Amino acid sequence: MLTAEDKKLIQQMWGKLGGAEEEIGAEALTRMFCSYPPTKTYFPHFDLSPGSDQVRCHGKKVVAALSTAIKNIDNLSQALSELSNLHAYNLRVDPPRFSLQFLSQCLQVALATRLGKDYSPEVHSAVDKFMSAVASVLAEKYR
Amino acid sequence: MVHWSAEEKQLISSVWAKVSVEECGAEALARLLIVYPWTQRFFSDFGNLSSPTAIIGNPKVRAHGKKVLTSFGEAIKNLDNLKGTYSKLSELHCDKLHVDPENFRLLGDILVIVLAAHFTKDFTPACQATWQKLVGLVAHALARKYH
């Protein structure tokens, strides 16, 4: 469960990114496709080569959704309701438990490479919990 | 039989050469106990694990972290025989320590994040992919003798 301290750490951390959020989204996706090739199966219609515009664009979307979630961290279910529908009924990405676990890992690596020591154990813990919570919400309507 | 390309071997050894086994091991284990607190169940005789600060400063955590990562170093010297390298440890973790192998995956992912924070932009996507492969194979080798 996200504590008040977790929420504060996440919001502070996100604030420290100084506009790099969009790049981070693209980087997280790139890392995910590189480390976990099966995740590419959800993007057969994308050019997945390095620096791809589509990946950049999609990375921006993913980060925008996470930003919204962070701004509405007290009500993730409602904030992510549309996305939850989309993932369950249209995209049908395998239960977010798996893919989001890979995206979560890669997002955290992207954050850690930028924040270095500032990606402290406490921040790491808060972000990991947050991504778990996001995954749960996205999986709510699967069945 | 696992195949390692020349590039992968290079990415592993060049990172490993710059890693302080003691620092990195301590940090990875501490983060495991902090981020996934239920893992503390395996370390009930480690003393004070009551807060992140306590965990990070705990000398038993540091010592054990160093042990774990030293064993990782052995794996890196024996990339072509991870199963053999971890055979005894696998039996130990199953028969004596009773550790759920899922925890190996968790520790592996945490190690990757520790390396990312340490090496920052030098920890490229290709580098991460190689290390995710390595930690995955180590976890697999450790789980192999479970019954």
3D architecture notes:
The complex is a heterodimer of chains A (143) and B (147). Chain A is mostly helical and 143 residues long. Chain A has a single domain (4-139), classed as Globins (Globin-like), CATH 1.10.490.10. Chain A has seven helices and no strands. Chain A has helices spanning 4-15, 21-35, 53-71, 76-79, 81-91, 96-115, 121-139. The longest helix of chain A has 20 residues, at 96-115. The two termini of chain A are 23 Å apart. Chain B has a single domain (7-143), classed as Orthogonal Bundle (Globin-like), CATH 1.10.490. Chain B starts with 5 loop residues before the first helix and ends with a helix. Chain B has helices at residues 6-17, 21-35, 52-57, 59-77, 82-96, 102-119, 125-143. Chain B has seven helices and no strands. In chain B, α1 packs across α7 (125-143) and α6 (102-119) runs antiparallel to α7. Chain B is mainly α and 147 residues long. Chain A binds chain B through residues 27, 30-31, 34-36, 105-106, 108-109, 112-117, 119, 121-122, 124-125, 128, and chain B through 27, 30-31, 34-35, 52, 55-56, 109, 112-114, 116-121, 123, 125-126, 128-129, 132-133. Chain B: Pfam families: Globin. Chain B: Residues 3-147 form the Globin domain.
- What do we call the CATH topology of chain B? Globin-like
Q: Assess the beta-strand content of chain A as a share of residues.
A: under 5%
| General shape of chain A | globular
Question: Number of domains in the coordinates of chain A?
Answer: 1
Helix residue percentage of chain A: 55-70%
Rg of chain A computed from alpha carbons, rounded to a whole number of angstroms: 14 Å
Provide the CATH architecture of chain B: Orthogonal Bundle
The overall pLDDT average of chain B reads 95
CATH topology (fold) name of chain A: Globin-like
Number of strands of chain A: 0
How many β strands of chain B by DSSP? 0
Number of helices of chain A: 7
| Through-space gap between termini of chain A | 23 Å
In total, the number of domains of chain B comes to 1
Q: Which architecture name of chain A does CATH use? A: Orthogonal Bundle
- Identify the overall geometry of chain B: globular
CATH class of chain A: Mainly Alpha
Protein name (chain A): HBAD protein
Organism (chain A): Cardinalis cardinalis (Northern cardinal)
GO molecular function, one term (chain A): heme binding
Subunit structure (chain A): Heterotetramer of two alpha-D chains and two beta chains.
